[in-house]
Amino acid sequence: MVPGNEVQQVELLAGVEDLYGGIIIDMEKTMDSEAFVPLLRASLSQWKQRGKRAVWIKLPIELANLVEPAVKEGFKYHHAEPDYVMLVNWISKSTNSLPKNASHRVGISAFVMNDKRQVLVVQEKSGKFKGTGVWKFPTGVVDEGEDISMAAIREVKEETGIDTEFVEILAFRQSHKSFFTKSDLLFVCMLRPRSFDIQKQDTEIEAAQWMPVEEYAEQPFMKKHDSFSSVAKVCLTKSEKEYAGFSPIPRTTASGKTSYLYFNTKDLTQL
Fold this sequence. Notes:
It is built from 6 helices and 13 strands. By secondary structure, the chain is of the alpha+beta class.
């Protein structure tokens, strides 16, 4: 009983409001489910009364014991990283407008050509090209927070030991259900070599070499599959100086961060 006119203070989980009418809870304190569930129920009740739309709970791997009780209170998985899982509960009566988890993975394919019209190519030790004899461009995945240009430079260095300078994006391809259920964006990047002595990555690369660009394009695999042959044609055309790709220019976002705008410098020289 609460004596007199005193108002009972209800303890809530610590959360911060986001920009979209939601609450974000970053759980750090060790807690068992017996203590967690009453706090969560009280918090949800309060936030519903206040008209909040969604509640996010970030649970570090040390608090994995709280996943099941949270799910029983209406939370669903949204995404996970190596050290945490993010759960979300749409508590508003309005239509659920929560953004889905990331839909695409971003990758690069690196077109590196020397002044002898030879391109840098590799054969992989694993994956779908293992044992096929196909020579392909170095490829890889862009890391979180990494620029496309820097990812291309990094992957070439890791796989072949070649130092490069980013020039431009020549083309990009979108495909679906490429990585589990996720779609894929692959950017074909042109880089200028700054070194030429190949030191291949032994763990992932079976072989690496400089190959005449025409020989690369004439491989049976490249000619058989139009997605690869189209890229080869773009690179051949670029090698003859008749194709303009997209070059990066730094720009500042509304939040003050630096981002890169890619554009055709040949046909659009004034920005």
